[in-house]
Amino acid sequence: MNEHSFAEGNEMMKTRYLCSMLLLCLLMTASICRTTATALDLTGAQTRLIEKVNETVIAASKSYAAGKYETSGQQIIKAMEQLQDAVSKGGEEAFAALAPAIQRIEKAHTLLQFEGVSLPPFRKPDPNAPPVDNAAAMKDDPKPDSDTPSKKPEPSKPEPTKPEPSPAGGEMMVSFKDEVAPILVQRCGQCHIRDTKGGFNTATFAALMKGPPEGVVIFAGDTIGSRLIETIETGDMPRGGGRVTPAELKTLKDWIKSGAKFDGDDPAAPIGGGAAPAAPVNMNLEVRRATGSETVSFASDVAPLLVDNCNGCHLDAMQVRGGLRLDTFAQLLQGGDSGAIISPGKSSESLLIQKLKGMVGQRMPAGGRPALSDESIQLISTWIDEGATLDGDSPTQPIRVMSQLAWAAAASPEEMSEHRKGLADDHLKLVTASAGSISELQTDHFHVSGPVSVGTLELVGRLAEAQMKSVRSVVKGESGEAFFKGRASIFVFPKRYEYSEFAKMVESRSIPSDWTSHWSFDGIDAYLSMVCSEQEEDEDVISGRLASAMVSLAVATRRRGVPRWFAEGAGLANSTQAGAARDRDAIRQQQADLSQALSTMQNAKQFLDGKLSPEHTDLIGGMVVSTMMDRTHRRSFDSLIRLLGNGQPFEPSFIASFGVRPEDFVKNWIAWVRGS
Q1: Of 307, 291, 315, nearest to 390 (Cα)?
Q2: What is the pTM of this model?
């Protein structure tokens, strides 16, 4: 696979030279801004600020025309700084006068990226924001001390009531262990340490930095791009009445600015104060993977017993008893204050069995709960005698999740449909005041419900079933409820506010303001959530909201573990290809957005590991998968989907289909897009 193979069948490069000419035309029309400034009757100071921006943009256009792309890039960066300064000082009048300049800078930013020039993201200035230090505002790089390419006047930074020192200037270091962790425990503990709301658990530093399924929420050095800070500042988090104080928020920001570093002993250790086991780690205990010859499965047989009988005291516990945590397999092997409770191969010597039988100390489970049956104890004993092996995803996966996924793997489509219906009812009760106001119906592939009329649900259900023809052009599968391994849920909300509240209450996240639909799959629950008002008459609009999400959900449900970027990318690519001929403006905007996304990405691994913002990850994923779905690579794409449907893991399936690792494919794609 080389650059030439990428070029076949992809339309983006065909417009490259046309866009280059467009850039020159746009950049050489600076007189528009001067005319606008005159019409708005700006002050002399405002006009001078605007002229500075225009002069720099013109200089950038001349450099670009001469093929001096790096120089042009430096000038565009300078223009971006001047733009921020002009709007900060000139207010809404300057912002209005600079509208043409903003458009030209956006276009220049896009095309310079195609020439391989590295630029910081371009953010439109806010005319209502207070004056800021523009050098700091322009930096999107995790290195706060790096200089901008152009000289700036001395910073006239008004002294705020509570000054916020930059940790980059000296040895100031915020301790995660002593300062950040206590804030997380106090403010986020109920939902994201003792529970995993929205699929996001922050019980350890490693889990915090990994983020929820949508992507990371902390970007070292970048408080603006860190979703954790955004959700706190907007008031979305924390829920339940508690609030992060200004001092605590400042501590979190300073920690991120200083590199979001970890100063503890073990990134995988619980961050809850005093909750870590006091007993030393038994180094002789190693995680043994199941061989397939065992008669007892930990995930399917043992984990459910632990979840049902140890919950509250040792699992999902606010205060752990005896220093014994059973939230993960690793913690089970670790043991508690009395040491290890498992002796692999020797159930009679294992403290766990002795406690369950009442042979040592207080019989477990305690607290008035009934003792385990002889059959259950024998099941655990057999598992230990067979080596105490693990057949779940990883030793650090929550045992509760492991148990649920094991059940899902063995469930029939009918059982899964019934289970998802129960989850759908629970989800909607969090959003609607009265369960009686919810309508519902079933189609061949979906369970459709929401606080709307049955007529609206029937319309959505009919259009969703009609859309399955397009879905099947991407993903082959069984008919009826078996296609999504059980009927998928579709939640329909008449107002965007309710749709947004659903994401907040069920997924514990805020969604972009321009979204009207999205999908989710966690290995069990599979659903689409969308807006459809009672007065909605345009069926094309409703179908458009369903199209991309349905394809993504179909790809994700082929096998648990399909990367979100790939599933989301398949949906975006399919809908983009279907609408490309009808909406050229959307294509150009997508290219501009893609350029901004690429400017934040340092390498392919950063994208594949989900360390970009969710919006940038989704956009890049859509363009990457669009390349996979073109005529040149379509056979390979279809082979990958087929292997996933047969239960094969993603990376081996990708290598078998495309002949390279996902990381290598994305590397080649980035090089091709950037023209390097």
Answers
A1: 291
A2: 0.58
